[in-house]
Write a structure and sequence with these properties.
Protein name: Hydroxyacylglutathione hydrolase
Number of strands: 15
Number of helices: 12
Order of helices and strands: EEEEHEHHEHHHEEEEEEEHEEHHHHH
EC number: 3.1.2.6
CATH superfamily: Ribonuclease Z/Hydroxyacylglutathione hydrolase-like
Structural class: alpha/beta
Enzyme class: hydrolase
Radius of gyration: 18 Å
Keywords: Hydrolase
Low-confidence stretches: none
Mean pLDDT: 94
Strand order of the largest sheet: 1-2-3-4-5-6-7
Shape: globular
Pfam families: Lactamase_B
CATH topology: Metallo-beta-lactamase, Chain A
Helix content: 25-40%
CATH architecture: 4-Layer Sandwich
Distance between the termini: 51 Å
């Protein structure tokens, strides 16, 4: 299948084809004794992911674990569907996200407030997962991949209060979710992801520092793909966060409303990213993943809390 890439170490990147796009959201299959899917993608992507797993030899009874870095719908929207397709799999999530996977009604209501009618085309509907199948992680935890191989979980809020990073003991891969931002492999651009309501600058920087301290061999971005230049990329993640926060803080101190703040920050950051100067499709892809409206709104929400 053209949406599967072997990354070595029995790890396979699966393009979940979010909303029909290529290269937007990745799921990863760790194909050991106890096969594990990291990130499901959206609900509408679930059949794509199921078919990819089938082509890699993972049938309905074979998947042992589904892990999500956090419960935003581009990462975990497919959990309920994947759980139904793979009835033996446990679903692993940070304890702050567990109840929303069991009962998604509040999460879906708030997502619909943000996205409106676009919700259905972009994400679809997160279906509930039976509570007894959900394993809730504390600040650290370990997932058994079989044969002594583990995926260790490290609480990394800042982007979202239910976010974890995951380290594979066999490969040294670190699944960064959105805590290190959004990476666009075609252009090498990296941009922060700072949506409301959970964004907090110091917490986000602390999470990036934790990722550096873990000493991973490679970063696996949910958006999108593997990056070998670990320390440089994490340094850049922190730098990008500070650039966006400084500009938004300036707009905030000038009393700009949300729309004007977004316009100012978008204008002053666009030179940083090749994607924003590229063709419209690439720019649109980047904006969908790490949109200025969402980023600026999240930073303003935080600023209103810390310096009203």
């Amino acid at each position: 299948m053209d949406n599967i890439t072997a990354l070595g170490g029995d790890v396979y990147e699966i393009d979940t084809r979010m909303a029909g796009y290529a290269g937007i959201t990745a799921g990863y299959l760790i194909l050991g004794d106890r096969p594990c899917l990291v990130e499901t993608g959206t609900s509408t992507s679930a059949p794509v992911v199921r078919d990819a797993l089938a082509s890699l030899g993972v049938g309905p009874e074979d998947l042992a674990t589904v892990v999500v870095t956090h419960i935003h719908l581009d990462h975990a929207g497919g959990v309920g569907d994947i759980a139904r397709f793979f009835p033996s799999a446990q679903v692993v999530v940070h304890e702050k996200g567990a109840r929303h996977l069991a009962d998604p009604s509040r999460l879906m209501a708030s997502a619909r407030m943000v996205w409106g009618d676009r919700l259905d085309t972009l994400f679809g509907e997160l279906s509930p997962t039976e509570a007894e199948r959900i394993v809730a992680l504390g600040d650290t935890g370990a997932i058994d991949l079989g044969n002594g191989r583990t995926l260790s979980s490290h609480y990394s809020p800042g982007h979202a209060k239910h976010h974890v990073g995951l380290v594979d003991s066999a490969t040294g891969d670190l699944y960064v979710g959105d805590a290190a931002g959004v990476y666009l492999p075609e252009t090498g651009d990296l941009r922060p992801a700072t949506p409301p309501p959970d964004f907090d600058l110091q917490t986000a920087l602390d999470s990036i520092a934790l990722f550096k301290a873990l000493g991973p061999q490679r970063l696996l971005f949910s958006h999108y793909g593997p990056v070998d230049a670990v320390q440089d990329t994490l340094d850049r993640s922190a730098e990008e966060l500070c650039v966006w926060v400084d500009l938004t803080r300036q707009a905030h101190s000038e009393g700009l409303d949300l729309d004007h703040a977004i316009a100012m920050v978008r204008d002053r950051t666009k030179e940083r990213y090749t994607a924003m100067k590229a063709d419209d499709a690439t720019a649109e892809q980047f904006e969908l993943l790490s949109g200025a409206p969402s980023n600026v709104a999240g930073i303003l929400h935080w600023l209103d809390r810390v310096s009203p």
